[in-house]
Design brief:
The chain is an all-alpha fold and 95 residues long. It is built from five helices and no strands. It has a domain of 60 residues.
Amino acid sequence: MRKNKSASPKHKSARKKTTNSHAVKTEASKKSTPAGKSRAEGIRLFTLAGRPSKEDFVKVYGPAGPKMTWEQRAKAGVPAEKFQAALASAMRQAK
């Protein structure tokens, strides 16, 4: 018969270290950097625009569309809020 052995103290201390390092990582992730804030805003606008593909960007903004930032796209005349309407219009004109 096998007997259940309890975890050795060495393993318990290792588990405690990983728990503490995990807590440190979550605290560090709460701090925002300017790059992280910009990335989050870009993702928010991408979602607002309906998660378009590269081909959709090309149809609305032309060949440079996928490389443009959302600010540049708004200056071009189609902000993220109106992207789906502009895409539908471009699809109608293509037919």
